[in-house]
Amino acid sequence: xxxxxxxxxxxxxxxxxxxxxxxxxxxxxxxxxxxxxxxxxxxxxxxxxxxxxxxxxxxxxxxxxxxxxxxxxxxxxxxxxxxxxxxxxxxxxxxxxxxxxxxxxxxxxxxxxxxxxxxxxxxxxxxxxxxxxxxxxxxxxxxxxxxxxxxxxxxxxxxxxxxxxxxxxxxxxxxxxxxxxxxxxxxxxxxxxxxxxxxxxxxxxxxxxxxxxxxxxxxxxxxxxxxxxxxxxxxxxxxxxxxxxxxxxxxxxxxxxxxxxxxxxxxxxxxxxxxxxxxxxxxxxxxxxxxxxxxxxxxxxxxxxxxxxxxxxxxxxxxxxxxxxxxxxxxxxxxxxxxxxxxxxxxxxxxxxxxxxxxxxxxxxxxxxxxxxxxxxxxxxxxxxxxxxxxxxxxxxxxxxxxxxxxxxxxxxxxxxxxxxxxxxxxxxxxxxxxxxxxxxxxxxxxxxxxxxxxxxxxxxxxxxxxxxxxxxxxxxxxxxxxxxxxxxxxxxxxxxxxxxxxxxxxxxxxx
Length: 512
Ligand code: HEM
Description:
The protein is of the alpha+beta class. About 50% of the residues lie in helices and about 15% in strands. A hairpin with an 8-residue loop joins strand 14 (about 450) and strand 15. Helix 6 runs antiparallel to helix 13, helix 7 (about 130-145) crosses helix 8 (about 160-180) and helix 8 (about 160-180) packs across helix 15. Protoporphyrin IX containing FE binds next to helix 6, helix 14, helix 15 and helix 21.
């Protein structure tokens, strides 16, 4: 269809991009290509902003960095709130009371109302501070114990990379966030049901006969709802992270039922995992398929590794790595830049003029990250290629890019509150994996894998998995790593520490 795009102009409003099948043409493109559709249209239009007409909705797509920054600045009138509430209505089967409470104070005039207050408490729980430290420490322990199962695998440690990461990160993240005591994801049918929802999400979102159009997703959602209802009946929140306790308390304040809270958790699980898992996959593929880059980042990590007097033992506090490894951080940001295709959806609450364009009330505004991340006026002539050093201060174009143009985590008032937890998580995984293991594809070369866009996710999902073998890192087979998070030992570190304590107790006994 993209070959037959045409343009029509309406007074003041952004130009309308038409195609031969009125209304349904664009809708079909969106269903077929997900968020990648906007990039396809944008490539064929010279305008900084344009309109798409679909049944019952008018969509404006913002392409220019300047207009993206303006949309962010008009957050009260071009708002993320109603977009998020529409997600709840379509996917989470909320009660009337829950919908009523969620729909209050859409313009966020003052800090009141279920949605603004919940987001505020989420930011509090997930910004650097006690809550984030406690959750990350728990996450590190759970990730390590899953990674450690590699050690007990048989001689040939072969696995499907994406499947392996997905299972490990699902279990470890939900243990850390929901508490391992009552984590619903320990039931593997809940885990597989959850990922089925993602696979058939678009069809479920049409909200017409979901049990027929999206049967696997429908069953997965029912299973997830039921499991979370049981979780709250068991008072699972009492042993959960601050994030879940804060959310529970806020929902109590607004008299939201346990059933509604259980349904809301589907969105939290999406936020926790749908971007982090593919980012971990792409990061490992990009690193291990670029041996020089891998060695460079390993060298950077080695600055934080302290060998003990017994040569075999090495200790690293992963919390020191976060924010202090420009090569690693730049690499992760660049991975996000090239693979983020979120739409940053907003709803126009009042007719609003931005830069001479009229945006009409009730329309949808998308600011696709794919377009901004490919803009040569921001990222230079190399915008379309992967440059691991792009975000190193003083080296690449990324360090100077305006915040409103790097949109992997969205932008403006609705900037993702989970970005710090994510950065910690990816640093933990990559640090442990890079220091301890070599990862080799079973076929001789790393194959080129394509990405698929999802309406719910920012980061593309790989269209196929890669069979790999995980081996002890060559030259480091005899080294034992102790991993810490803010001085507290985990994994090997924990075992060694416990052993040392036991030895010293024995020594004391002997003295006695
Ligand atoms: C790679 C990891 C992640 C990526 C790429 C990501 C990306 C995003 C994006 C693109 C948005 C939309 C913001 C906008 O349109 O302006 C968003 C919002 C959000 N994210 Fe994340 N996210 C990640 C991890 C997380 C995690 C771990 C959580 C934890 C629960 C989380 C919670 C949220 C929430 C609650 C919002 C809505 C914010 C609001 O309503 O103001 N995200 N995220």
